[in-house]
Amino acid sequence: MSSLIFLFILSFLNTSFTACAQNPDFLAGFCPNTNTTTFSKNSTYSINLTTLLSSLSSRNASYSTGFQNATAGESPDMITGLFLCRGDLSPEVCRNCVVFSVNDTLTRCPNVREAVLYYEECMLRYSHRNILSTPKLHPVAWRTNGNNMSYRQVVRFEDTVSNNLNRAAVRAANSPRKVFAFKTNWTEFQNLSGLVQCTPDLTTQDCLNCLQLSINRLPFYRIGVRIRYPSCYSRYELYQFYNETAITTLQLPQLSPPLVPSPQRPGKGGNPSVLVVAIVVLVILVVLLPIACYCFLAKREKKPYDTAPAFHGDDITTADSLQLDYRTIQTATNDFAERNKIGRGGFGEVYKGILSNGTEVAVKRLSKTSGQGETEFKNEVVVVAKLQHRNLVRLQGFCLEGEERILVYEYVRNKSLDYIIFDPAKKSQLDWTLRYKIIDGIARGILYLHQDSRLTVIHRDLKASNILLDEDMNPKIADFGMARIFGMDQTQEKTGRVVGTLGYMPPEYVMNGHFSMKSDVYSFGVLVLEIISGKRNSSFHERDVARDLVTYAWRLWSNGTALDLVDPIIEGNCQKNEVIRCIHIGLLCVQEDPVKRPTLSTIFVMLTSNTVTLPVPQQPGFSVQTRNQLHQWSTSVDRSLITDIYPR
Ligand SMILES: *[C@@H]1O[C@H](CO)[C@@H](O)[C@H](O)[C@H]1NC(C)=O
Ligand SMILES: *[C@@H]1O[C@H](CO)[C@@H](O)[C@H](O)[C@H]1NC(C)=O
Ligand SMILES: *[C@@H]1O[C@H](CO)[C@@H](O)[C@H](O)[C@H]1NC(C)=O
Ligand SMILES: *[C@@H]1O[C@H](CO)[C@@H](O)[C@H](O)[C@H]1NC(C)=O
Ligand SMILES: *[C@@H]1O[C@H](CO)[C@@H](O)[C@H](O)[C@H]1NC(C)=O
Ligand SMILES: *[C@@H]1O[C@H](CO)[C@@H](O)[C@H](O)[C@H]1NC(C)=O
Ligand SMILES: *[C@@H]1O[C@H](CO)[C@@H](O)[C@H](O)[C@H]1NC(C)=O
Ligand SMILES: *[C@@H]1O[C@H](CO)[C@@H](O)[C@H](O)[C@H]1NC(C)=O
Ligand SMILES: *[C@@H]1O[C@H](CO)[C@@H](O)[C@H](O)[C@H]1NC(C)=O
Ligand SMILES: CC(=O)N[C@H]1CO[C@H](CO)[C@@H](O)[C@@H]1O
């Protein structure tokens, strides 16, 4: 098949005239050839298609913007067509690709009513249906760069790539031409470059959906991948694959958020591209001063926190609508009365409050350690407030006055999970069905943070006291986004300030300060084992048996007595196969090697479908002294089992 394509391209190389320096790089073509999708040679449709194609490849088509739509004929012979060139390419390259593709489709898709042809430089698409302004996520084509990221660096790489692509997706979706490119320092010798683009006929939301879907499908362990849908395109490489000059020009008009997404703090200082941008801005300001002034004034009408990194357009939440008066909060909490105090977290103290309209709220008074500016704080709160999911505690407002930084959350009635699950007198309230529901809900909440929200948020401090339970015992994760609110770098691979709680932190985090989404997976695994056993991982008492719960669970599992882990209070009344499966998943989550831990989307599939075969867990990650005492019994994890269960 690929050799056929190769031959095909080769024949074009031989016959095409030399004016075209290089033929476009063909990725894939799709034109379903069935009785209902074809037309006959001399039909109206055929004539109209010819008209359409020649209009798309005509000299006056808008190659400079890289996108053109056109229609020809009347229903039922109406045809709609479009082309999209990669955002950084010059009009000449774009036209070359479109002209080539128009020729190409006549050969590849003769007499077929609809076709999509993907090249690296452009895409050509036409159909008898109306394809404009309609997101289309099928068919997909992709190509990977043959090499895998080295095992040692793959976790950091996956995080860097996914964070940058997701941020770029938001920027692209909000830009007029629906394209955004980024370059960021990967190592001293390599930059990571990426480009995401939608057809500009899509709405911001449709574009974002398409890009996020495509990004979620990318195998980030490859050092370079490109993926194309009819509606969008994403690519990243460890080399400069796009024309930086062209993209910089394109991206200048919307400079307001930083060109380099904020988490890329390393290496920001001496970045020459920032310098170039600065010079260009200076020139523009001087030359086009009146216009610049006008734009500036127009911008000033908006609030400064409009520069929040992510959201524009359909989002109406602003800092104004969330900001609360300090006095309001003082009244609501009886001036932070001791008897209103309901908890203490790593970031400050929590009080119960009642607002003047009767709403019960939980008020978190943050400790005064953040060196963050007011605007940044507001920006981050607004972003975090937009993370809304039934398994996340809802952030309802904030207050910022003087030194005070206060977050106001929905009030959740049943306190936190640790308050019930570890209390011998209360734990019987949670039977197996409820515990399973809690595990499931926590997984949904983290999955949303990791992948389904518009940002990738790593919680970094998942633990039983951060899982709150509402009156129906639905779990709600608290304290998410604290890293954002405190202005800490979410993607930085190492952190001097190790937040998190002993017993829930994975070995690579404790020892090296490395964290990633897989750190949250580890904490989730610990939580699962705690929920099943009703025992705390950190203050595990059976010292003669094992030093902590994870070790203990592993020992029982390898002895074939996993059910001994189950909390005696629910033992007689639980679905044994469900429990075993949850212990199995818990053990997979606490694997020492982050790569071997499943992602949340995999965990979710494992939890919700019991037809899926789980990989065999290996010895979990725990302290060095116990490592050699256990015999290796398990076979190595079969990676194909892991990949199989993605329904993709
Ligand atoms: C398609 O058309 C051919 C002849 O033109 C016929 O033999 C075949 O059964 C048709 N297939 C379908 C699915 O209608
Ligand atoms: C198509 O039309 C041309 C002239 O209009 C005619 O010469 C040719 O035979 C037709 N071909 C078919 C397949 O009908
Ligand atoms: C280009 O110009 C021709 C007439 O000069 C017109 O028929 C055609 O629709 C134009 N094409 C586009 C894409 O504007
Ligand atoms: C489509 O084909 C019909 C029949 O040949 C013709 O009358 C009409 O002008 C065509 N439309 C375009 C836009 O070429
Ligand atoms: C298009 O194809 C025809 C023959 O099929 C060829 O003569 C012509 O040169 C091609 N044009 C381009 C721009 O490749
Ligand atoms: C890259 O990694 C994947 C999954 O881990 C594996 O299936 C593939 O064979 C590896 N490819 C290369 C070239 O090492
Ligand atoms: C990475 O990007 C920076 C800033 O644009 C540039 O100075 C540097 O030369 C690039 N490094 C490589 C290896 O391309
Ligand atoms: C990159 O884009 C700029 C501006 O559009 C153009 O002048 C330059 O020739 C392009 N470089 C390459 C290598 O295509
Ligand atoms: C890029 O990052 C590496 C470490 O990740 C650092 O050693 C290097 O100095 C950085 N380079 C630049 C140009 O910032
Ligand atoms: C959805 C869309 O982009 N439609 C455009 C198609 O092209 C015509 C001009 O040729 C525009 O007017 C439409 O807005």
TrEMBL record:
<dbReference type="InterPro" id="IPR008271">
    <property type="entry name" value="Ser/Thr_kinase_AS"/>
</dbReference>
<feature type="domain" description="Protein kinase">
    <location>
        <begin position="336"/>
        <end position="622"/>
    </location>
</feature>
<dbReference type="InterPro" id="IPR038408">
    <property type="entry name" value="GNK2_sf"/>
</dbReference>
<keyword id="KW-0808">Transferase</keyword>
<keyword id="KW-0325">Glycoprotein</keyword>
<dbReference type="Pfam" id="PF01657">
    <property type="entry name" value="Stress-antifung"/>
</dbReference>
<keyword id="KW-1133">Transmembrane helix</keyword>
<keyword id="KW-0547">Nucleotide-binding</keyword>
<dbReference type="InterPro" id="IPR000719">
    <property type="entry name" value="Prot_kinase_dom"/>
</dbReference>
<keyword id="KW-0812">Transmembrane</keyword>
<keyword id="KW-0677">Repeat</keyword>
<feature type="transmembrane region" description="Helical">
    <location>
        <begin position="274"/>
        <end position="297"/>
    </location>
</feature>
<dbReference type="Pfam" id="PF07714">
    <property type="entry name" value="PK_Tyr_Ser-Thr"/>
</dbReference>
<keyword id="KW-0418">Kinase</keyword>
<dbReference type="InterPro" id="IPR002902">
    <property type="entry name" value="GNK2"/>
</dbReference>
<keyword id="KW-0732">Signal</keyword>
<protein>
    <submittedName>
        <fullName>Cysteine-rich receptor-like protein kinase 15</fullName>
    </submittedName>
</protein>
<keyword id="KW-0472">Membrane</keyword>
<feature type="signal peptide">
    <location>
        <begin position="1"/>
        <end position="21"/>
    </location>
</feature>
<keyword id="KW-0723">Serine/threonine-protein kinase</keyword>
<dbReference type="InterPro" id="IPR001245">
    <property type="entry name" value="Ser-Thr/Tyr_kinase_cat_dom"/>
</dbReference>
<keyword id="KW-0067">ATP-binding</keyword>
<keyword id="KW-0597">Phosphoprotein</keyword>
<dbReference type="InterPro" id="IPR011009">
    <property type="entry name" value="Kinase-like_dom_sf"/>
</dbReference>
<feature type="domain" description="Gnk2-homologous">
    <location>
        <begin position="27"/>
        <end position="131"/>
    </location>
</feature>
<feature type="domain" description="Gnk2-homologous">
    <location>
        <begin position="139"/>
        <end position="241"/>
    </location>
</feature>
<keyword id="KW-0675">Receptor</keyword>
<feature type="binding site">
    <location>
        <position position="364"/>
    </location>
    <ligand>
        <name>ATP</name>
    </ligand>
</feature>
<dbReference type="InterPro" id="IPR017441">
    <property type="entry name" value="Protein_kinase_ATP_BS"/>
</dbReference>
